[in-house]
Design the sequence.
């Protein structure tokens, strides 16, 4: 009964927020205030080694402890420990052991990522995704990760996009308020769906009113716009985390990423923080990643 009352209260709160957002003008989230000079630190996302880490239930050739060692051998001081590659049952003992392992190797946990869908118009699914996000906030807080990548989702068929974006923003804000209590910031990624273009992503950002929120700047995720670099310039002022991919989609065609231009976009807004290589190309990651790391290191500050 208590859970039912809690669910009904949350649903009523969400409905109130959606109605308010439809009748009020959007409040623009200010660009994140930053100090000069920009300082960029290089990290490696665990997703880069998905061929070896594998997802839950699949055979693994590498675990997160070995991934951290791989990064350390490359001279990288940061790792993003993506949630997909943790054990099915995550315990406090496991997290403490992993955190100590990183510390001993001199590697900082730069962030994490969680699967979620905040666009769904199914209240039960939305609550499950919120609870899933809160659980991983707890896990990453224990690890000392400062930021978690989250996602928006897809536009439900037949629904007014403004309603969808308002609901997504409300869920982001709800999740962020919990994350703030744990000292964690949530970063909404430009990752297809309603965030396939900068305009959709920023429409959500403008409606979230909490300092524990920002954008995950992913250089390779704008596939449809004719000029993805212009889209990146639009979202960079709101970035609290950054990722670099080595491929871009320019006018619908694949091309090598202009790494210097991407880094310059971040520096132009005085972004300071982690920049994680998220390698997704077809070449063997064990061979390709070290080469890309060598290209990125001179562009970073640490």
Sequence:
């Amino acid at each position: 009964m208590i859970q039912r009352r809690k669910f009904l209260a949350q649903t009523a709160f969400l409905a109130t927020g959606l109605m308010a957002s439809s009748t009020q003008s959007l409040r623009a989230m200010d660009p994140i205030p930053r100090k000069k000079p920009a300082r960029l630190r290089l990290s490696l996302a665990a997703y880069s080694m998905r061929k070896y880490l594998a997802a839950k239930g699949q055979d693994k050739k590498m675990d997160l402890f070995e991934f951290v060692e791989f990064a350390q051998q490359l001279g990288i001081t940061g790792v993003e420990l993506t949630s997909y590659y943790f054990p099915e049952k995550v315990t406090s003992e496991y997290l403490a052991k992993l955190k100590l392992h990183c510390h001993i190797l001199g590697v900082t946990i730069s962030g994490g990522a969680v699967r979620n869908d905040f666009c769904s118009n199914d209240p039960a699914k939305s609550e499950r995704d919120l609870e899933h996000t809160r659980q991983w906030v707890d896990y990453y807080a224990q690890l000392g990760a400062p930021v978690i990548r989250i996602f928006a989702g897809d536009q439900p068929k037949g629904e007014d996009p403004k309603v969808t974006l308002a609901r997504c923003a409300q869920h982001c804000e709800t999740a962020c308020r919990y994350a703030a209590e744990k000292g964690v910031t949530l970063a909404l990624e430009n990752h297809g769906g309603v965030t396939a273009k900068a305009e959709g992503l920023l429409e959500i950002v403008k409606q979230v009113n909490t300092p524990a929120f920002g954008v995950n700047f992913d250089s390779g995720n704008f596939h449809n716009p004719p000029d993805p670099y212009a889209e990146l310039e639009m979202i960079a002022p709101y970035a609290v985390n950054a990722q670099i991919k080595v491929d871009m989609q320019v006018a619908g065609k694949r091309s090598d990423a202009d790494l210097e231009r991407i880094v310059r976009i971040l520096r132009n807004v005085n972004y300071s923080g982690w920049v994680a290589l998220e390698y997704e190309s077809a070449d063997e990651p064990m061979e390709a990643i070290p080469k890309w790391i060598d290209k990125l290191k001179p562009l970073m500050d640490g």
User: Anything to note?
Assistant: The CA atoms of residues 18 and 24 lie 10 Å apart. Residues 35-299 form a domain with the TIM Barrel fold (CATH 3.20.20.150). The longest strand covers residues 40-45.
